[in-house]
Structures are given as structure tokens and as C-alpha cells.
Amino acid sequence: MEKNSRARKSMAVKDDCEEVSSNKWEYINMTQQEEDLIYRMYRLVGDKWGLIAGRIPGRTAEEIERFWLMRHEKAFAERSSQKK
């Protein structure tokens, strides 16, 4: 019985950690106020995207995280500079 509960917990964790391919990401435009709020909230709470998204109406945690990664990840920075 303990083995089954471990398997269920393992499956639940896998569902929560679903990765999205960055190849199909579109650039997310944020207003200056949204960007400022994201940076300030990130300094306060870290990468708690759901908490940050709760402060920005109309934005999801996934959008906020994707925006952050696109701005701060080296691979995205290189890609965007090649497009220009």
C-alpha cells in the first residue's frame, strides 16, 4: 500500500512540473509599470511567479515567468540580439 501512495505522489509532482518548449515562446510585451512591479516583487519574494502575477491584473504566472526568463536567460538574450 505504501508503494502505491509513493507512485501517486510521484505522478502528482510530475504533473506540476510540466516543461514548456522555449522554441514556441513569443516575446511578451509588458508595460513599464508591469516591468517595474515584476522587478520589485522579484527582489522581495523571489521566483514566486503566482504571487507576482496576482499583483498584475490580466497576467498569469506562466507569462510572468516566461517574461523573466526571456529577459534574464543568456540563450534568449543571444537569440534576440541575432534577430535585430
3D structure, described in words:
Keywords: DNA-binding, Nucleus, Transcription, Transcription regulation. It is found in: Nucleus. GO terms for molecular function: transcription cis-regulatory region binding. It contains 5 helices and no strands. The protein is mainly α. It has a domain at 29-84: Orthogonal Bundle (Arc Repressor Mutant, subunit A), CATH 1.10.10.60. It has helices at residues 2-16, 32-45, 49-53, 61-72, 74-83. The chain is globular, with a radius of gyration of 17 Å.
The level of helicity is 55-70%
* CATH homologous superfamily label of the domain at 29-84: Homeodomain-like
Structural class: mainly alpha
Helix/strand order = HHHHH
Q: How many individual β-strands? A: 0
CATH architecture annotation name of the domain at 29-84 = Orthogonal Bundle
Mean pLDDT: 75
* Low-confidence sequence ranges: 5-17
Main sheet attributes: strand count, strand direction, barrel closure: none
Over all CA atoms, what is the radius of gyration? 17 Å
Give the oligomeric state of the chains in this entry, treating copies of one chain as homo and distinct chains as hetero: single chain
The span between the termini is 58 Å
Indicate the overall shape.
globular
Named CATH topology of the domain at 29-84: Arc Repressor Mutant, subunit A
Q: Number of helix segments?
A: 5
> Which CATH class of the domain at 29-84 applies here?
Mainly Alpha
The portion of residues forming beta strands comes to under 5%
Subcellular location: Nucleus
Protein name: Myb-like domain-containing protein
Domain Myb-like: 31-68
Organism: Dioscorea zingiberensis
